[in-house]
Structure formats: C-alpha cells, structure tokens
Amino acid sequence: MSRSSGDKKPVGFGTHITAGGLAGAMEALCCQPLDTIKVRMQLSKSGRAPGTKPRGFIATGAMIVRRETPLALYKGLGAVLSGIVPKMAIRFASFETYKGWLADRETGKTAVGNIFLAGLGAGVSEAVLVVNPMEVVKIRLQAQMHSLADPLEIPQYRNAGHAVYKIVREEGFSVLYRGVTLTALRQATNQGANFTAYQELKKFAHQRQPELTELPTYQHMLIGLISGAMGPFSNAPIDTIKTRLQKASFPSGTSALARITSIASDMWRQEGVHSFYKGITPRVLRVAPGQAVVFAVYERVSRVIERVKEVSDEDDRYSE
User: Fold this and answer.
1) What is the DSSP string of 124-172?
2) Average pLDDT over all residues of the chain
3) What is the predicted pLDDT for the residue at 10?
C-alpha cells in the first residue's frame, strides 16, 4: 500500500501480514459495539405489525445497555479478535499479491480495473479462510439476549471457544460455512470497492501534494473513512440475508439456494423492502471508521517495520 516509485523497495510479504494483523486488532477494539447493534437490528422482527416502525440504531443500543449492561455491546469480541487478526493479515497480503500479479510487467503499475479485481480476490480469500466461520460464531454470541449482570442467567454459548465446540458437536462442522457464498460475495464487493477507492484517493492526494513522500496519518484516516463507506451501501441486502441465514436453523438436506430464497421471500413478504437495509446505519458507522483505523494503523506500522529493516540492513553491511 505504500507509494510506489522507481527507487523504493517493495514492501515485504511479512510486513503486510504483521501490519494487517495489528490494524485488524485495533479496529475490533474500537468498533465492536457498533457491530453488535447492527446484528441485533438485522435479526430484529420489530416493525412487522401494521402501523409500527423498526427499532432504530440508538434505541437498539440503549435497549442492549439497559437489559444486558454496557459490556453486552462487546459480545462476540473474542470471536472477532481471534478472526480479525488473520483476516486483515490475509486481506492485505493477498491484495498486494494479486495486485503484483496483475501489474504491468514493464512499468510495474496496476490499472484501476486490475486493482478492483485484486480487491475482489482479497475479499473472497478472507471470506473463505477466516470470515465466514468467525461470523457464524460471532452472530450466535451477539444474538444471545442475556444479562451479563445476572450470574444465574446462563447463556447457550459462554464464549467463542465454547460456541465453536457446541456448534460443531451439535450441528456439524459444515455449519461454520453456512452462508459462505453470500459472505464471499459481500467481502469481494466490499474489498473491490474499498481498495479501488483507497488507491485512487491516495494517488489523487499525492498528486495534489507532490512535495510529500508519505501522506500524514490523518489523511490516511480520511481516505480510509471514505473508501470504507463504499461497500456497505453496495451490498446491504446481501449482508442482512447472510446474517439471518447464519442465525437460522433449517431441516437437514435443505440446499443453500432454498435457504436464501426462503429468508429473502419471508423478509420481502412480512417486512417489506426496507428490511433488506436493516442495520445499515450502524454498519456504515462501524465499517467506515473501522477502515479509517485499519488503513492508518496499517500504513503506520508497515512504515515503521520497513524503516527498522532498513536500519538493520545498514548495520549488517557495516558489520561486514
């Protein structure tokens, strides 16, 4: 993700893995409450009765805090942290790898269309390897409406590890990959839009400020904020159907297409078209600032790692 120039060494694969992992951990710690509210809104059946409106973003958050204590906003954080570090590592490392493969052999530059394709590939890679199993566990934990202040109220899943064990034992390993097609489609469109917008906005910022070799952190955050908002608006229906699919139970042998069709038709018939956009506010409020944090931390950490490596290389040359 660093600025390319003829005299600048490409950032190493290990740097992408490390910086991406640290960026993901920081994002999770900052944005988990917004994600919990988003999931509750998507699972909510409020607004079905005639003359009633779906519960909004603030009302949903207030209800969680009132009934289950503020710590409930961090339900599923263990699952997220255990998944988001490898997810971000895979996202950045795979994107840079695909981007390199698609670059022009003579100039080393990657066209906008190929950047979008690299983003699509990165989204599919992270979805299959990490995101889908992580989200099945996270959604099961977030959907539990128990009070953390009452020790006698025992939830079905105590933590992420217990949830994985119980899901696999009672429902089978394949349940962790329920909705993987929708997840891959969502992540692919997310990262295609995200990386394309980020790269182009970053290029534009460099063109307007040719005197800067590296953009300041606040500009990385601003660019990440804008690029991060692109995905949620483009694929909100996919995300809402995916969330309900991963929470729902179906008879054994029901095909993925039949499950998706059943959920989508039920939403359309009983809740209307607006139900496909439930949770869009907290999702944008979570994803956009999350990407601002991710890109700022990623750029900063990768820059520090590369500088340390350069100093180390200099020391090795002097020692010889």
Assistant:
1) HHHIIIIIHHHHHHHHHHHT----TT-TT---S--SHHHHHHHHHHHH-
2) 86
3) 64
